Amino acid sequence: MSSITLRAATSADLDRITEIYDDAVTNGTASYELEPPSRTEMGARFDSLMAGGFPYLVAEKTGAVLGYAYAGAFRPRPAYRFVVEDSVYVAPEAKGQGVGLLLMQGLIEAAKVAGFRQIIAVIGDGRPDSASVRLHEKLGFRHSGRLEGSGYKHGRWLDTVFMQLPINGGASIPPDPQSLPERKFQQ
Questions:
Q1: Minimal CA–CA distance to 5: which of 106, 87, 89?
Q2: Quick one: 152 exposed, middle or buried, by C-beta within 10 A (0-12, 13-18, 19+)?
Q3: How far apart are CA 164 and CA 54, in angstroms?
Q4: Rounded to 5 degrees, what are φ and ψ at 8?
Q5: How far apart are CA 82 and CA 80, in angstroms?
Q6: How far apart are CA 91 and CA 100, in angstroms?
Q7: For a pLDDT cut of 90, what percent of the chain falls above it?
Q8: H helices within the chain, ranges in order?
Q9: What sign for the dihedral angle of Cα 48, 118, 161, 147?
């Protein structure tokens, strides 16, 4: 794990990011998309996140991208501006090597630096033993809700689990007027 490095994602990473997400959509239940989006669509999503100033990271080892994570708006209404939703995806050959943990630790730190107050995980197929649920629990996220039978994929009904991590004081103190979400709102 020590030879894995994190860095900001760039558009040059999008082919690999698209491959990793393609596998997650095709073979997994974390994403409720049924058809993998095209490279063009993934580029548009990336550009939107970059324009919003949201953190987007990749993990790599010897130049090969092993996974990626980003934070995006939880909901579009302005009162939600201090809340982000995390997404993390790891290449099949890199699972179980701590890549997801490193990505999430970096993402949490980047969200703190930007001044966000809550990180929400919306976990598809949120069984208690799922890798994503266990990862978020390990990082201090608490369970905050479950939507039973909310998705249908690969011939079965899936529950969606919501988990939440307060950062930067959460809801206990007023927002920082210099934070990214507040500066963007004031523009």
A1: 106
A2: exposed
A3: 18
A4: -65, 135
A5: 6
A6: 10
A7: 94
A8: 14-27, 39-51, 99-114, 131-138, 180-186
A9: negative
CA 53 to chain centre: 14
Residue pLDDT, tens place only, 115-138? 999 999 999 988 888 999 999 999
User: What H or E segment, with its residue span, contains residue 119?
Assistant: strand 118-124
Chain position carrying tokens 């689990």:
161
Q: What's this model's pTM, rounded to 2 decimal places?
A: 0.95
Q: What is the 3-class SS of 63-105, one letter each residue?
A: CEEEEEEEEEECCCCHHHCCEEEEEEEECHHHCCCCHHHHHHH
- Locate 167 and state its tokens: 């950062």
Tokens at 174, concatenated:
């007023």
